Amino acid sequence: MKVLYVSSEALPYMASGGLGDVAGSLPQALRKRLIGCRVVMPLYDTIKQELKDTITFITSISVPVAWRRQYCGIFQAKHKGVIYYFIDNQYYFKRDTIYGHFDDAERFTFFSRAVLEILPYIDFKPDIIHCNDWQSALTPVFYTTMYAKDPWYQGIKTVFTIHNIQYQGTYGMDLIGDVVGLKDEDAHILEYDGDVNFMKGAIECADMVSTVSPSYANEILDPWYSHGLDTILRQRQWKLCGILNGIDVENYNPETDQFIFDNFDVDHYVGGKKYNKKNLQEQMGLPVRADVPLIGIVSRLVSHKGLDLIKGIFDEFLSTTDVQVAILGSGDWQYENYFNELKARYPSKIAARIGFVPELARQIYAGADLFLMPSKSEPCGLSQMVALRYGTIPIVRETGGLHDSITDSGDGKGNGFTFKTYNAHDMLDAIKRGIEAYYNKDHWNELIVRAMECDNSWGKSANEYIKMYRNLLK
Hints:
- The protein is an alpha/beta fold.
- It has helices at about 20-30, 50, 90-95, 105-115, 140-145, 175-180, 200-205, 215-220, 225, 230-235, 270-285, 305-320, 335-345, 360-365, 385-390, 400-405, 425-440, 440-450, 460-474; strands spanning about 1-5, 35-40, 55-65, 70-80, 80-90, 130, 155-160, 170, 190, 195, 210, 240, 295-300, 325-330, 350-355, 370-375, 395, 415-420.
- The protein has 2 domains: about 1-245 and about 460-474, Glycogen Phosphorylase B (Rossmann fold), CATH 3.40.50.2000; about 270-455, Glycogen Phosphorylase B (Rossmann fold, 3-Layer(aba) Sandwich), CATH 3.40.50.
- The chain is about 40% helix and about 20% strand.
- It has a 9-stranded mixed sheet, sandwiched between helices.
- Helix 12 crosses helix 17 (about 425-440).
């Protein structure tokens, strides 16, 4: 089986979020299971020079973009056994940032079309083309409308994965002729609610649509989560499924992590957790206390991450509870200011670092006792899985991937603490139950072991994707 994994970003070459992590990890896991998986992505100017030096030129072609043709260089590199192809066009991709430009629609229309155009030149005809998010959503559309009947292309199946339905690639209808280049009779494929909607087109045309967790696949059928796409998703529900993401367990490994203060494993975690907590407290300017529960938060500071719930009750919580909180993140100024103000009022209880420091994030995962993720929505979430790996117990709202990866330990079998409704006092109740468990050391130690033994590796996810691919090819 041959799979071409199409992504606008992929580690180690470029990543701005979870998509880059997935595109860097899943293809490796598939290859280990004897699936011939290769990746294609844009050749961004901001790729690090040492990685650029490993990329070699294959050939160049021209790619149609509506009524014009654009240069397309085809490059190749190999990383950890996976072949990466790079689509080069300096006008489109020689930018300081990878997203957020006035012509993103044209840039990623070109990319989506180029994915299909390069196939005869790379000696790789895939059985499956697996596209991700709106930036490659037009590839299934172009395949269905322009390539599927071509004898060379016949028989290819397309998969489209929604990592975050909030970002759909929505533009004015004038793009149909001037940028996308669809015939008038095919314009309805992209039209949705009076606009061009790239993601809607992929949902229409792909043979299978997946999301990054089973719960998220159900949630996006509800208008509260769907950002307007619930109607088309319900119509196409027969081809919708959810597969929970994994994490790179070699990268996130407390036994070998060079960024944490002391390495440890599930058989020798007591001393390691204690030492990491002590050094994290020193690093964040908190009093060094082994007897107080330390809650970690590593998050973008935006409302849908549940920050409004925290803002609603944290003042009261900190004033009445013997606890410490270590926060790392950046985002909306109102939340950045709020945490800085809390830090000034409760200097012995709360420490906030505004910004993102990858090393400090690892140290919070390893040194905190509890990890708070009260998200309003969370398609998958990786932080809760990383926290488990480091023996830090998640407190989460039951949504998306949080619901699928964390179960409440009230039954003596779970791996964290959960709450269901999006309510500040329900969150507070889950936090208090976590703190209560912290002081019951026998139960707490059992909980840490259960957490660290959870298997959130990409192997499980890869097996589910392989099942989906095989069902498609049948």
